[in-house]
Write a structure and sequence with these properties.
The protein is α/β, with parallel strands linked by helices. It has 11 helices and 9 strands. Strand 5, helix 6 and strand 6 form a beta-alpha-beta unit. Helix 3 crosses helix 5.
């Protein structure tokens, strides 16, 4: 099958691409021409090709879409950048998706479209018993969720054969730069994670699963990946040998995360292969030789994280 993959070099895309290639698909990857992406493109394995262009460029998207059988649209600008650059985020997330839809519709034989959304589109639900269901109300809480809700509506209104995956949290399986946003999630909020390999597996399996088309499905890690944010963060920090952060460093406000009902998606796609322990182990393994430096670096790293908190050591406020 000939597939167009947007966001191929992102967190989910980089785990989806090898799964598609393993099955013998021909994959065209859309990417902006940057120094980093140029280096990644040189490492593409057989069966993958690059189509340089910005998702916000309708001509480039139309050119990349020509002749494909399916489009997997992962490209998006997510928080915290989506909060910091809402205008650019809307161009990428909404205009980019509109370009993908238009390019698909313009093909003599329109390709199927798989679009990834987020479980965050259901708003603040900590006061309701879990899990969330795909027919729960949609409530935008930031630019990113507003964009995803708008994109879902655009896809619904199109004549294309489509499916929408609302993904749970997909942690990077490595060390990531800390950001103040990590302190905006209340420790008692529920959060469900999804191993990046399982996300890629679900997407690849969808292409051979007729029952998913025309459906919205939650894609999450299941019971073993359902935690409170306190548990989630403590275990990921422990994977990096960093002690838990104090409770007063975190917001007390609700956040748009929850546990989700993945019974239907798992029965169709059989993708839940990893537990949260596997995620934590992958993060720990990513340290490699740097693990030898942990006795010295641990207190420094922890102190640097705490300096990012808008709450630690200050009169507590809640997010408006």
């Amino acid at each position: 099958m000939r597939i167009l993959l947007t966001g191929a070099f992102g967190n989910v895309g980089s785990h989806t691409l090898p799964e598609l290639l393993r099955r013998g698909h021909q994959v065209r990857c859309v990417a902006r021409l940057t120094t980093v992406n140029r280096r990644k493109a040189r490492e593409l394995p057989a069966g993958a090709e690059i189509a340089w262009g910005d998702i916000t460029d309708a001509v480039a998207v139309a050119r990349a879409t020509a002749g494909v059988d399916a489009v997997i649209h992962l490209a998006a600008l997510i928080p915290p950048r989506a909060d910091e650059e809402p205008d650019r985020a809307r161009e990428v997330n909404v205009v980019g998706t509109a370009n993908v839809i238009a390019a698909c519709e313009a093909q003599p034989e329109p390709p199927r479209l798989l679009f990834t959304s987020t479980f965050d589109v259901h708003g603040y639900t900590v006061d309701r018993p879990p899990p969330r269901h795909v027919d729960d109300p949609l409530v935008a809480t930031n630019p990113y969720t507003a964009h995803k809700i708008e994109c879902e509506a655009l896809i619904h209104a199109s004549p294309l054969t489509w499916c929408i995956f609302r993904l749970a949290d997909v942690p990077i399986l490595g060390i990531r730069e800390p950001h103040p946003i990590m302190f905006e999630i209340g420790l008692d909020n529920r959060i469900e994670s999804l191993h990046a390999d399982d996300a890629g597996l679900a997407i690849a399996n969808a292409l051979a699963t007729p029952a998913v088309w025309g459906r919205i499905l939650f894609i999450g890690g299941g019971a073993s990946c359902q935690l409170t944010y306190r548990e989630y963060l403590t275990r990921l920090l422990a994977a990096m040998s960093i002690d838990p952060l104090p409770e007063e460093a975190f917001s007390r406000a609700p956040y748009a995360t929850d546990w989700i009902d993945t019974t239907e998606s798992e029965s169709m796609l059989h993708y839940q292969r990893h537990t949260f322990d596997d995620i934590a182990e992958a993060v720990a393994a990513s340290l490699g030789w740097k693990r030898r430096l942990l006795p010295v670096a641990r207190p420094v790293a922890r102190a640097a994280m705490l300096r990012l908190s808008p709450y630690y050591g200050r009169p507590h406020r809640t997010r408006s």
